[in-house]
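Table S2 (text version). Query chain:
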Amino acid sequence: MRIGVPKEIKTHEYRVGATPHSVREMVAHGHRVLVQNGAGAAIGLADDQYLAAGADLADTPEEVFARSELIIKVKEPQPHECRQLRADQVLFTYLHLAADPQQARLLLDAGTTAIAYETVTSPSGGLPLLAPMSEVAGRMAIQAGATYLERPRGGSGVLLGGVPGVAPGKVVILGGGVVGYNAARMAIGMGADVIIADPSIDRLRRLDELFAGTIGTRHATAGMIEALVLKADLVIGAALVPGARTPRLVPREWLARMQPGSVLVDVSIDQGGCFETSRATTHADPTYVVDGIVHYCVANMPGAVARTSTFALNNATLPFVLALADKGWKKAMEDDRHLAAGLNVHSGKVMHPAVAEVLESI
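Corresponding structure-token output:
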């Protein structure tokens, strides 16, 4: 199969869909891989490395899209990219269609078979291709929150770890999944006072065991979330409903009663965000202020640590890429219902039930 790897074009997105190591495996399976010049240059993956792995190089993204049967990316295709897709191609990348009806419409018009990393499942019920980026984003969320709590950056001037004689900052994490767990690990390491709120008692019980009582856990009712948010210095939005739009957990009316200069970091922004006042930002302009509360809503947070993120993502995606290329997408999905859960769009139709439900309501 002809596999294409274009350079990412989203603002400050430096990740790449395939590393030279991944390319070498694809070539060993008998596939031809076409990589755009400079696709991995920003993270130290030179064109020579791709050539040594057996790839061919393309001068333009148009060449990659024109010559490839399977397109491997990281972020959702931008409008210009969507218009280059064809009905006989397969696209494998993050899509997050529930929060992006324009992209959904363009993919439907193209007739492309689009498979989303974020809805591929695992036998254990997890999301194996979302998990590595959720790990990165969860850890980054605390770094970002700590940075924007600094007074020169608009925050309240609170040091998350405190110092002897001064209380540490209060971190509230809404959601106890992969993002929430990793955010809690980082926050505890910095010495913060951490509480995770989640609607699942079983998950809270598990988190309590994992952290051996070093964090607080709360059942995530609306009243409990309100009480926690109003006292927090840093709130991490880590809620997720696979394929669907993220539930809005924090209405705007609460902001005026929050601690002035506190920070909201919405890791759920790819799926629409869990704060009513959330809107997607970029690494070029990451924050804005509403009612005195700093919002950090960068839609590709792991792109800032692109080298780590690229290798982590490739570790997870490579087996699925090989299955798609070796067998063809139909046979690969017949053989693996978990990969089949990633099918979002095919032949002008939305195939994922949760995505379809959200898009029908828009």
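Notes on Table S2: The mean pLDDT is 96. The domain at 2-120+306-360 is CATH 3.40.50.720 (Rossmann fold).
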